[in-house]
């Protein structure tokens, strides 16, 4: 213990020990770690009465470590919150037109926030191809073909924003099945931007 805390604690044992000083009391003191670094601890005391003597039991908790952990968790939670605020996603619905070609029927209101385009920009016939990176068109076509075939599936690909920049996204699509006929009427998809940032502990 540093001297001032040592003297304070030692004084409680001088002369006649007062039981009320240690029965269910909590003390916070500074002790020195073996590395010489001072740390704050909390001591919860309890008297144990035996036949021939009375013992003081002290449960010691490292407050400095607890505070450090709480600060780390607080920072991590803040980082998570910041990252999730950066994630914007949107939903869509696709159907097959008269030529059995896929077409966006619906893009959610978040779509302009993600891409900068109005929702109507890609709901026209064949317009969806302009949204997808040219190198990812085959991947996307296979992906939605699986969904139209009745399989829920996920895929990563790139989409373009209004500034001409491509963004990596994760898409989860599932078929829309008519409960009465059992036929697939389209697919619904949920698109989430892939965050490129790693969270540091």
Structure explained in plain terms:
The protein has helices spanning 3-11, 63-86, 111-115, 137-148, and strands at residues 26-32, 38-49, 54-62, 89-96, 102-107, 153-160, 166-177, 184-193. With 201 residues, it is of the alpha+beta class. The chain has a 5-stranded antiparallel β-sheet. A 3-stranded antiparallel β-sheet has the order 1-2-3. It starts with a helix and ends in an 8-residue tail after the last strand.
The helix/strand series, from N terminus to C terminus, equals HEEEHEEHHEEE
> Unreliable segments (pLDDT under 50, ≥5 consecutive)?
83-88, 196-201
Give the quaternary arrangement of the chains.
Answer: single chain
Structural class: alpha+beta
Distance between the termini: 31 Å
Q: Mean pLDDT, rounded to whole units?
A: 78
The main sheet comes to:
5 strands, antiparallel
Question: Proportion of β residues?
Answer: 35-45%
Per DSSP E runs of 2 or more residues, the count of β-strands stands at 8
Task: State the helix count.
Answer: 4
Short description:
The chain is 25% helix and 36% strand. The protein has four helices and eight strands, in the order αβββαββααβββ.
Task: Using brief descriptors, characterize the structure shown.
201 residues, alpha+beta, five-stranded antiparallel β-sheet, three-stranded antiparallel β-sheet, 4 helices, 8 strands, elongated, disordered C terminus
Indicate the topology.
Layout: H1 3-11, E1 26-32, E2 38-49, E3 54-62, H2 63-86, E4 89-96, E5 102-107, H3 111-115, H4 137-148, E6 153-160, E7 166-177, E8 184-193
Antiparallel strand pairs: 1-2, 2-3, 4-5, 4-8, 6-7, 7-8
